[in-house]
Amino acid sequence: MDDILKALDAQHAQLGAIIDGCETADWNRPTRCVGWDVAAVLVHLAQTDELATQSAHGELDQFLHGFLGDRDAQVVSVDDAAAAQVDVERAAGGDAIRARWHAASQEMRAAFAAGDPHRRVTWVSGQLSLQTLATTRLSECWIHTDDIGSALGLTLPPTDRLRHIARLAWRTLPYAFARADTTMTGPVALELTGPSGEQWRYEPDTPALTTITGSAAEFCEVAARRVEPDATELVGAGPDATAVLHLVRTYAQ
Q: pTM (2 decimals)?
């Protein structure tokens, strides 16, 4: 958990440095998130960081199937619900949203640091460990830092913080397949090269039937739905190779 919290702190510091330099016109720049400008992306992060703090404090524990309930009973999708909330609170303006996100991210990190990393807490579609929730928040902040950075014309080199994000995407493959009403043929392994050149291998407890090989940064970008698998040099071998690269994700819906 300590390594994840250090990575989350570093990711927040990177985003903070970017948004602290934003001027009035920058908040209105369109991002890769269709329909959202820089301020909208940041208010979404603030909202979800605040929600994660509530979860860490046990304030959502009554929602055993996630705070949006059973997916079969959902009237709106997670994306639609997030968009509606952003639409309501985007009008506060960039400067107010910046201050809100700084406060929300700091409070969330404090809640994570004070909690039991193994305690089950509530998130979008069910229960997960506090440590997994922290990793999920790291992942979303990384994704949206790049969204904001690209909107501002910045190139942000990948870092070894991606180790945690790649592992999250790998560990949640069964969830991704289930959401697509698809069954995995068997265990999956990853053989990835981190930004520093270090080799990262993620292996299941039983022999893998499918292995994905290539750049950790590209794998995470595919899992974040920011790059199509065919636009990368990722290579898959095994019965689930194609499905893994099209279904893998770093976030819950």
A: 0.91
